[in-house]
Write a structure and sequence with these properties.
- The structure is a single chain.
- By secondary structure, the protein is of the alpha/beta class.
- The chain has two domains: 174 residues, Flavin prenyltransferase-like (Rossmann fold, 3-Layer(aba) Sandwich); 209 residues, 3-Layer(aba) Sandwich (Rossmann fold), CATH 3.40.50.
- The strands form six sheets. An eight-stranded mixed sheet has the order 13-12-9-14-17-18-20-21, with helices on both faces. Strands 3-2-1-4-5-6 form a six-stranded parallel sheet, sandwiched between helices. A two-stranded antiparallel sheet has the order 7-8.
């Protein structure tokens, strides 16, 4: 018996070439016993037909905000609240922008504005549109309002470009729907602290020391823990990936700020240190921009160690989280260095990964990790960082009972 039997999804299909995947999503939902009602936008009807959606969903398809027949049978307010979950797939840049602005200029936007139910969006658009500052700002705003996001994936597109923006595959959207509609969650009542991204250590007001961390892995872990019911505090260095839905984000710049934010978030049951924290900072950072002068030597930078966030929290006495997980990103002697780090820093687990340039892991979409604990080593295959996060969250849930 699946979690979707007896549940109802309102599926909003917007206008993009990926709309054809909505047909497969309906088939998967119906196979799991989930009822599906569709709202098709005018642009969406350029790619799929109302008849196709109706045949697969076995339910009437709604298209017009001002339909007298539809409003008499089921008004848009009732339509927005009759389902257990609203899903927008594909979610175009235009519809995301209208959701952010709170517009109600067609049936889809009106239903989304009038609902009191959870909303899941699956973005799909050209890579330039996805990476545009306006779209990223819209995603951040919607996430902060509690809208859940799945995808987008990276790959070849219909416009002959390559990059992020492909609609998540229907099985991945189905998994996100199942997670949102599941019953009691194993980490409900638990508080997790997760660090993510790089830190920036200032040299002067315009320059800094940093690293190539994208924050994808840490953000994915925060999202996966939240999906299992945990209350998550995400302490993040400067990143461009969107904030995960349903988590509390504490943005920081430097390692010292990150440590302060982690200490302020205690007590916690779980602490996961996925951030790539700079080991050193500049002791003699300039208050003004350092000017290059002809004939003058380059300024000497005095480096001093940054605080050890993992070791500090792992040794925090009565406030120590029940489970402390560190990350070891290495370019050589991976397992030896990771095992030594676990013991030296009093971590319960270390997630070790090889970040040599040839692997493409630092800043990339995939990861290959090894989980080191007192019980031994688990070697996980190379998969998407979201899948690593899901598996790690499930392992944590099992550990905490």
């Amino acid at each position: 018996m699946t979690t979707l039997i007896g549940k109802r999804v309102l599926l909003i299909v917007a206008g993009g070439i990926a709309a054809y995947k909505s047909l497969e999503l309906i088939r998967l939902l119906r196979k799991e016993g989930c009822g599906v009602t569709c709202v098709l936008t005018r642009a969406g009807a350029q790619f799929v037909t109302p008849l196709s959606l109706q045949a697969l969903s076995e339910s009437k398809v709604y298209t017009d905000l001002f339909s007298l027949t539809d409003e008499s049978e089921m008004g848009h307010i009732q339509l927005s609240r009759a389902a257990d979950l609203l899903v927008v797939a594909p979610a175009t840049a235009d519809l995301l922008a209208r959701m952010t602005a709170g517009m109600a200029d067609d049936l889809a936007a009106t239903v989304l504005l009038a609902t009191d139910k959870p909303v899941l969006v699956a973005p799909a658009m050209n890579v330039r549109m996805w990476e545009h500052a306006a779209t990223q700002a819209n995603i951040r705003t919607l996430s902060q309002r509690g809208v859940h996001v799945v995808g987008p994936d990276e790959g070849a597109m219909a416009c002959n470009e390559f990059g992020a923006g492909r609609l998540a595959e229907p099985p991945a959207i189905l998994a996100a729907i199942e997670s949102l509609l599941a019953g009691p969650k194993p980490l409900a009542g638990k508080h997790a602290i997760v660090t993510s991204g790089p830190t920036h250590e200032p040299i002067d007001p315009v320059r800094y020391i940093a690293n190539r961390s994208s924050g994808r892995q840490g953000h994915a872990i925060a999202a996966a823990l939240a999906d299992l019911g945990a209350r998550v505090t995400l302490v993040s260095g400067p990143v461009t990936v969107p904030d995960p839905a349903g988590v509390t984000v504490r943005p920081v710049e430097s390692a010292r700020e990150m440590l302060e934010a982690c200490q302020a978030a205690l007590p916690a049951d779980i602490a996961i240190f996925a951030a790539a924290v700079a080991d050193w900072r500049v002791a003699n950072a300039a208050e003004g921009k350092i000017k290059k002068q002809a004939g003058q030597p380059a300024p000497a930078l005095e480096l001093v160690p940054n605080p050890d966030i993992l070791a500090t929290i792992a040794a925090s006495g009565p406030n120590r989280p029940r489970l402390v997980v560190g990350f070891a990103a290495e370019t050589n002697d991976l397992m030896e260095n990771a095992q030594a780090k676990r013991q030296r820093k009093n971590a319960d687990w270390i997630v070790a990964n090889d970040v040599s340039p040839a692997t493409g892991i630092m800043g990339g979409e995939e990861n290959a990790v090894h989980i080191l604990s007192a019980e031994g080593v688990e070697d996980w295959p190379r998969v998407k960082k979201t899948e690593v996060a899901r598996r790690l969250a499930e392992k944590i849930a099992q550990k905490l009972g």
